[in-house]
Amino acid sequence: MTKYLSSLFLFISVVFFAQNQVKVFSKADKKPIHNAAVYCDDALLGKTDFNGSVSFKTKCKKVEILASNFQDVVTDVKPSMEVSMQPLSEKMGNIDKIVIQDKSDPRALRILDEVNKRAKENSPKSLDSYNFKSYSKFSIDVDKDSVDTYKNFLAVRKDSLSKVDKKDLKQTDKEKKDSLIGEDLIQATTESQLFLWEKAAEYKYSKSFGEKTNIIDNRMSGFKNPIYEALAINISNLDRTPRQLRPENRKLFNFYLSDTLQLDGRKTFVIKFKEITDKKKQNPRKFNGKIYIDSETYALKKFESISKKRNEGDIVSVWKPINGKWFLDYENMKVKMGSQSFETSKKDSLKPGEKTKYNKKNFGNYLYVKNRFFDFEINKEQKASEFKGYSLEMKNSDGSLLSQYRTDSLTARESATYTKIDSFVEKHDFEKKLNTLTQLLRGNLRYKFIDFDITKFFSYDKYQGLRLGAGIKLNEKFNKTFSPDGYFGYGFKDHTWKYGLGLDVRLSDKRTSVFRIDYVDDVFAAGRFSNNMWDMMAQAQKLGAVQKV
């Protein structure tokens, strides 16, 4: 019996002492504060009892403590904490109650309604025409504040691995290969980022001729050839209203008019917003961002968005007035993209029969986006010839022109990314594997100048039953003007062979102009549209949204 009681006592002790404890009291009279809420980011960990005490478990390094009529306190997490809170003045308490109410401030909603009402009037597209250029930089790396710690950790880890007897490691050939690839990437990122992509572009708009975007130049670490699908990606609030401001999302957020200030010499409304989740557990002081509105024009002037979790990311977009219209000036974004985890040492406290476990060191990976816009020209005369061709075209792709458009120089770590990651990708032939994947997504399997149509390999319908076949098309590596194709198939239910032969003749380098002739002996569903000229089926000639000229 004594043995069981001892085990139970040990279990209770471990559970109890594994928790963090905090005692909260007033700084003025030293009395305990009842019902003080302890938050980790936007999650409620617990509330204090009548003795001002609460126990909780958390992985957060800091917690925020809130109590009615007391100033908020942020404190480091320790096994045992004592926190004193400063009482609020009556005026500050009243303001606090207004800000944290569970419904939107009507004044803030009226301002946002006016912003949406005047959106077209404030938009650059209300002008006759405009031109401007941009420089964008996308990179993936560890937190910039942790780079030195990361480099030092990898240096110590490399030294430790060199002392390990590899004979003791039991790995399959595939595991060894994957391990070597992983180590190559880790060593490459000691002095470089995981990824870097720069892009310079020119944007044109005309009421008469429409829109046109020219990719002046771009360079992507690890890839010699441009990835056309990526060029169309717009990680920006350019020509896009942040979702928090859209009327259809009004019920997803609460908005509070928090301040009126002078920003760049103009009177500006500041509206805080917070996402509506579980009101009982949600930190009432934790806002998801701010919206800055110009009081004269009711134009969006600045937008700040902060992740609900600490260090998960943030977005800042800033607009500026030019000729009475508001153009995007610059943007900075930081978004967490998972993390790298390294085993450091074996855990000592293991249960009988339990597999070996390791302590781990984690480093978060982040996507950093920097967009800069400049060289604005308003109501400049536009020529129809400047808008011919595709709405998005690429003029250069070797990175030789980027230095003319960078708004600041690359750091040593950024510059090393091109050489280190280029070498890594080339060594393991990742570019070829990626090209194969993109072809598969288009419905093709490419081998040299032949594209195999994988949609022709297998199909099933009630008339033909199971149908097997094959289809090929000669791509631009065969000829940039002529692209013959053919296919055949056999239905096991109707016991009939089907086939088709065709030829595409490209008529223009500037437009999606193709003359096609074909002969088909096949069966099709009633009402079916021909897809021979669809962009997806004509990727061999790059008839999609992006075209190199």
Question: If you had to describe this structure to a student in words, what would you say it looks like?
Answer:
It is globular and about 95 Å long. The protein has 549 residues and is α+β, with helices and mostly antiparallel strands. The chain has helices spanning 2-17, 90-99, 106-117, 119-122, 147-162, 173-188, 228-231, 412-428, 430-442; strands spanning 20-26, 37-40, 43-47, 53-56, 62-66, 73-76, 80-85, 129-142, 195-206, 210-220, 253-263, 266-275, 289-294, 300-306, 313-322, 325-346, 358-378, 392-394, 444-447, 450-453, 458-461, 465-474, 482-491, 496-506, 514-521, 546-548. It is 20% helix and 39% strand. The chain contains 9 helices and 26 strands. Residues 1-17, 93-99 and 533-549 have low confidence and may be disordered. The strands form 4 sheets. The chain has a 12-stranded mixed β-sheet, sandwiched between helices. Strands 19, 20, 21, 22, 23, 24 and 25 form a 7-stranded antiparallel β-sheet that branches. The longest helix has 17 residues, at 412-428.
